[in-house]
Input
Amino acid sequence: MDPLAARIIDAHGDIAKWRKFKSLSAKLQQGGALWGLKGHPGKLDETSVTVGLQDEWASHAPFGPDGKISSFRPDMVQLADRDGRVLEELKDPRASFAGHTLETPWSELQLAYFAGIAMWTYLNLPFLLARDGVQSERLSDWEEGGATWQRLRVTFPREVATHSTVQTLYADDHGLLKRHDYDVEIAGHTPGAHYIFDYADVQGFRIPTSRRIFPRGPDGRSLTEPLVVSIDLSHIKLA
Output
């Protein structure tokens, strides 16, 4: 493992202890322009999310005002009612985004897929850096807002469903994540700059509770608007 990757992991907690847990759950508040652009304004503004820490899966409940429950895995996404009865499902969900641009609306199942890959990725970082098949490489330092951040290029294996194969993490002098860049492949490879802050101590781990995502320009600098997605977490629990 790249020494910077190891330092980032250590700053967030003991990976041996992390591997003893199977899931992480939290109350989730979201906002931003993306949800309306994709045809689902307000659907996931206030919900709870649970993600797997050993295997890749995620669930949002409620999923919309009807109280549905989503179930995401890389090869299938489902929506169920309150009693767990499957209402609809989509196999090989990634293939359904072929030809999409940023403006292409999503079905409910496609929304569930995106929400699944996003929250699974966010809540498993930085411990994903130690996952089999994930490669990391130190890049040059980055100056932003009067601070110097260390950068790490991360390459995910094909079997991991996430925003893009190649992503970039930014860490401060203490090794805490400050920013996370990726291109949203399922939305026309739209570039995003994802800011990470408001860390909380949760069962011995340092976990950020606030995230803000903005467009990223060709020079790598983030744009000040629009706010694409806002994420605020509370009542975080590992089990």
Notes: The domain at 3-238 is CATH 2.50.20 (outer membrane lipoprotein receptor (LolB), chain A). The helical segments are 3-12, 15-18, 34-37, 108-124. The longest strand covers residues 190-202. The chain has a mean pLDDT of 97.
